[in-house]
Amino acid sequence: MTDVETVKGVGKVLAGHLRQKGIGSAESLAASSPEDLAEVPGIGAERAARLIAEARTMTGGGAPAEPEADAVPPDAAPAPSIDAGPSAPRAKVNGAAGGSAKSGGAAKAKGGGSGKASAKSGTKASGKSGTKGSGGKGETKVADTLAGYEEAARKAFKKQARTLKKARTRLEAALNDLRKAASEKAKARKKTKK
After folding, report:
1. Range of 89's domain?
2. Tens of pLDDT along 70-107?
3. Is 52 found in the same domain as 23?
4. Where do the H-state alpha helices sit in 32-133?
């Protein structure tokens, strides 16, 4: 049996919720229905279908996942409209005032319009892009963040190397001064003995 946490899209917290529901393996996740998964906190109808499909492909039962995945989006179609309902008035206000990055940019890409039309096209476009194209954007964000961390680490390393080099130079100079002082002291002793 494969642990439920190995299924793509299931993290530690969600795995804990699934285990509380009695779903502790990828096989039991693949055998469960979207309605059962929708009762788990953090899982909607669309995500339930994706998790079941992922679990089925992972466990080797990939063929039955296709009809169920096709059957769920009509049920999931009202869910985005319910979510879009409360956000639509905000999108209208943002669209009339110049738009936010999501609604205004999507409205301009769709062909423009003002107020109500741009808000509607903006919410539709953002709903579509959130389901299909969000993976690539997240990966580029992660790559950019990692590149930023690497650059910061390089800069910190170079700065530390410069600091160490300066300290070494100062220590060598101090050591040379001590050697000179010691040799002068030795010469002074020899002169006093004569």
Report:
1. 84-132
2. 444 444 444 444 444 444 444 444 444 444 444 444 44
3. yes
4. 34-38, 45-59, 65-76, 78-96, 101-110, 116-132
